[in-house]
């Protein structure tokens, strides 16, 4: 769903517009010559309702009939289903084939769709099973791969032994899963080529070799992407997630050297660290578009690149490692248009955001950013309050916003210590209200915290064109924001 804007300063779109697909795998159960893979996609979502599409791939022996089962985790209910028949008892759902699509050969995929209702949350289902066999994406028992049957070679070492990353991850089998935008991996290899093992049908990626972008991968699926025909020698390779996917994890399985080459020791971590926290501006929503209506050029995802945001650009210029912990449409206490009961703080501490198996990310001792840049508040204040919300006046909203913001800053202080510099950013929203700017300045002024500062983005004075999708900052605008942020950081007594 695209939010139509009448003013150029409005900055975010509804949350569900950004991430609409979920790939879920569950634990393996024993069954000879059987296996399956399920791709569960939320195709549309609105308050209280949603549509979904499910792809089921049979990896085992041919079937003449099939039955897929799963459990919803938040009380969702199916109201209508096509290409099959459905029964539901509480959270448990069973979908059986229709009369014409029961035959499912080895390697073949069938699809069905449904409409449903949700209340409060709409996480992905769990425990998919086909005819009683858990869908893990592989056979049970797993056959021994051969040169003729395996197109994805195994990495030469554990993923995290091969690559450097500071992103929020969850180890999953031989790979790592991740959802936050801009998550990146950096490795080194010797030779003329390298393969990157991926399993992701939802996200786009940027691939760099020796600092230059060599490919943009659009929903690559399960594959090993090869970069070849390089000059013989030592090289660096970088994989960065371009898109948002709060309900869908990417899966990276590591690096594979081309014939005659080898994977080298991973790069040393950088001493400088920056964390960027925010909404669609921080995530890079539609930033590569040259038109505010990007429907004809592939939509929001195809035009988004977290690797080209002001955060990524700032970190690159300062030779810093970074996290981009951002979610379009989310606010400090209120989301865009007053949608949903959750907000950004609901998910800030998670490893996989809203994914069904998400949990609290255990902050490693190696992640202690010297700077945290926060941009939250556009969604809180850019749209008018509606009936049914907890606030009846902007003043009430602003009071709750300030209280929540102070609590959030206190959490960051506990997390990272008193030496971290925290920068609160805010763009011009004066056409709608001054409560946003007034609240940020009040928080800083009253804090008594010498390492807390604010940075105002004056859209007009900076010459921002907001030509990204739906009036968002363009690639040029992100370069402007990068320059302004670097100037502000230069005024701080940083000791890095």
Automatic annotation (TrEMBL):
Keywords: Carbohydrate metabolism, Glycosidase, Hydrolase, Polysaccharide degradation, Signal. Transmembrane segments: none annotated. It comes from the Bacteria. Residues 29-138 form the CBM2 domain. Pfam families: CBM_2, CE2_N, Lipase_GDSL_2. Residues 1-32 form the signal peptide. One of its GO terms (biological process) is polysaccharide catabolic process. GO terms for molecular function: carboxylic ester hydrolase activity; hydrolase activity, hydrolyzing O-glycosyl compounds; polysaccharide binding. This is CBM2 domain-containing protein. The lineage of its organism: Bacteria, Bacillati, Actinomycetota, Actinomycetes, Micromonosporales.
């Amino acid at each position: 769903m695209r939010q139509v804007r009448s003013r150029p300063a409005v900055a975010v779109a509804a949350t569900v517009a950004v991430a609409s697909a979920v790939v879920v795998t569950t634990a393996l159960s024993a069954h000879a010559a059987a296996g399956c893979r399920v791709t569960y996609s939320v195709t549309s979502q609105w308050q209280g309702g949603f549509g979904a599409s499910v792809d089921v791939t049979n990896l085992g022996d041919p079937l003449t009939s099939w039955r897929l089962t799963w459990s919803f985790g938040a009380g969702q209910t199916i109201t209508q289903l096509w290409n099959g028949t459905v029964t539901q008892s509480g959270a448990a759902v069973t979908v059986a084939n229709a009369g014409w699509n029961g035959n499912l050969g080895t390697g073949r995929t069938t699809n069905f769709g449904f409409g449903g209702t949700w209340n409060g949350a709409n996480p992905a289902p769990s425990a998919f099973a086909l005819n009683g066999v858990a869908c893990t994406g592989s056979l049970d028992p797993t056959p021994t791969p051969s040169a003729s049957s395996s197109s994805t070679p195994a990495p030469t070492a554990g993923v995290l032994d091969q690559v450097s990353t500071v992103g929020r991850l969850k180890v999953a089998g031989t790979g790592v899963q991740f959802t936050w935008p801009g998550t990146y991996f950096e490795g080194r290899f010797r030779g003329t080529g390298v393969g990157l093992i991926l399993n992701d049908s939802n996200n786009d990626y940027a691939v760099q070799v020796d600092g230059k972008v060599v490919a943009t991968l659009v929903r690559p699926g399960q594959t090993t992407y090869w970069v070849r025909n390089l000059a013989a020698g030592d090289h660096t390779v970088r994989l960065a997630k371009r898109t948002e996917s709060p309900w869908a994890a990417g899966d990276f399985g590591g690096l594979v050297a081309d014939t005659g080459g080898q994977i080298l020791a991973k790069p040393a971590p950088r001493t400088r660290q920056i964390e960027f926290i925010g909404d669609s501006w921080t995530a890079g929503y539609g930033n590569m578009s040259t038109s505010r209506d990007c429907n004809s050029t592939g939509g929001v995802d195809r035009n988004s690149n977290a690797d080209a945001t002001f955060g990524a650009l700032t970190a690159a210029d300062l030779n810093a490692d970074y996290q981009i912990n951002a979610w379009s449409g989310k606010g400090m206490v209120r989301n865009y248009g007053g949608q949903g009961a959750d907000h950004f703080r609901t998910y800030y501490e998670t490893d996989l955001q809203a994914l069904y198996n998400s949990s609290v990310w255990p902050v490693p001792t190696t992640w202690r950013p010297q700077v945290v840049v926060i941009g939250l508040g556009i969604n809180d204040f850019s749209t008018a309050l509606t009936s049914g919300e907890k606030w009846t006046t902007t003043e009430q909203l602003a009071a709750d916003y300030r209280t929540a913001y102070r609590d959030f800053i206190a959490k960051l202080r506990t997390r990272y210590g008193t030496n971290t510099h925290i920068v609160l950013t805010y763009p011009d929203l004066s056409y709608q209200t001054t409560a946003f700017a007034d609240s940020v300045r009040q928080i800083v002024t009253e804090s008594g915290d010498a390492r807390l500062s604010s940075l105002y983005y004056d859209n007009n004075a900076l010459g921002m064109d907001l030509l990204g999708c739906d009036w968002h900052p363009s690639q040029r605008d992100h370069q402007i924001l990068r320059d302004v942020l670097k100037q502000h950081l230069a005024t701080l007594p940083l000791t890095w």
